[in-house]
């Protein structure tokens, strides 16, 4: 019986998985990196051969160029192309290499995907350099009015005014703009969905055996084959706990509510335990009776501790003047005040390495 789904296992530990990586998504992430290299190294011999053979201008203009005959190598490279396109964004320098409509250079994707309707012939080949004039934009070159949100995104696009001025590709899923395989893998495996933070990261920080850590991980996911879980999956079985024979067997009952478990925890609850009680009760169903007992014991402990007079030991710290380095002078200052506001005074003393 498969207790935990594979889609959950291949998630990162921060998202509740085991940190394993799916082979197909990992391969696509590496192929997207190869697409980036092929674009950045267009002058390299290997890139020239591949682009000339499998992606000439005549082929790129076709509606479905991927349906044409090609080698297994080009088909593999094409698998990483969608992730490459989704992850890159253009950093604007002089704007000569960036098409206004088809290139991803503003926040949210290409401008062509944000608008509907045909474009004029002279508008289709507009470059960012044509549309920009210093810090201003030539809106009159466009035959229609951009919506306000598109204009705001264009105005908010950072533009490099200094340096070599060339447009450059950046990876938008990293802070420094550099491509990372991990971010490409996550994009290929889960898309752009927000990360659901797993509240059980503490189990990986415990100094315990790995098999116990994995057991706790299964508990937090409710994936221990208890009798109630087996019955929920259609297996005909008796759900009564074989230890106490009074309640249905579940994870919470096994670790918290069963009388046998309570007695075991009572005997093991020592100050030097390596597994805190948080391991048992994290993400569990609240138990009102247990809450009352814990709160009552906490009140008694607080009352007893507050009545004990704390013993403080005074430690005398010797204070003496230390010489500065030869050729240096040292300035020592001090001050005091009688209240705030109140009378205050201060002073200072300058001495050299000889003490004078």
TrEMBL record:
Residues 179-265 form the Reverse transcriptase zinc-binding domain. Residues 337-356 are annotated as: Disordered. It comes from the Eukaryota. InterPro entries: RVT-Znf. Pfam families: zf-RVT (PF13966). This is Reverse transcriptase zinc-binding domain-containing protein. It comes from Lithocarpus litseifolius.
